[in-house]
């Protein structure tokens, strides 16, 4: 294991622990504040397509965001991973279009249509931690880095402020998000202003 992988492994363990120890009442409040910040972004208001992960227990909640985007008339697409380590997004019309998928993560059912040529689009990106340059430490599969390498819209990393680190270790395959939203503030990468 090289030095970057070792550092990422340690950060994953540290931030999984930090995130899972946020008291439930605090997490509910943080999720509400992040939801309000994301939905007040100009990029959210202007997007026609919302690409977002489907959150699990300790992750920043996206279920309310999915419901709002659908009620706002946006096309919502969520990821589905395959055994080739690639991830594609599929359009859902409601949370009923989801089923238990790989890694225990809710994924779009096979009846859902693949999202292609979608613009203007906003992509909500998960991570265990972000740094203020937009780099992230995810779960280690590289799915989002491969997806973001060809994504033409705006990418937004969402996390709790306690899951920001000084600097994420990165290699040539790591792709930074365009902005970060926490319960306390949002930051746009200086090269994206």
Question: Can you offer a commentary on this structure?
Answer:
The chain is an alpha/beta fold. The chain has one domain (3-192): NagB/RpiA/CoA transferase-like (Rossmann fold, 3-Layer(aba) Sandwich). It contains five helices and eleven strands. The protein has helices spanning 3-20, 24-40, 42-46, 63-71, 143-148, and strands at residues 49-52, 75-81, 87-92, 98-100, 106-108, 121-125, 129-130, 136-137, 154-158, 179-181, 186-188. The chain has a seven-stranded mixed β-sheet with strand order 3-2-1-6-9-10-11. It has a two-stranded antiparallel sheet with strand order 4-5. The model has no long low-confidence stretch (mean pLDDT 94).
What key attributes describe this structure?
single chain; 5 helices; seven-stranded mixed beta sheet; alpha/beta; 193 residues; Rossmann fold; two-stranded antiparallel sheet; 11 strands; globular
Helix count, DSSP H or I runs of 4 or more residues: 5
**Would you state the CATH class?**
Alpha Beta
The total of beta strands comes to 11
List unreliable stretches of 5+ residues: none
Approximately how much beta-strand content do the residues carry? Answer: 15-25%
Whole-angstrom Rg: 16 Å
CATH architecture: 3-Layer(aba) Sandwich
Output the helix-strand order: HHHEHEEEEEEEHEEE
CATH fold field value: Rossmann fold
How many distinct folded domains?
1
What does the main sheet amount to?
Answer: 7 strands, mixed
Beginning-to-end CA distance, first to last residue: 37 Å
Proportion of helical residues: 25-40%
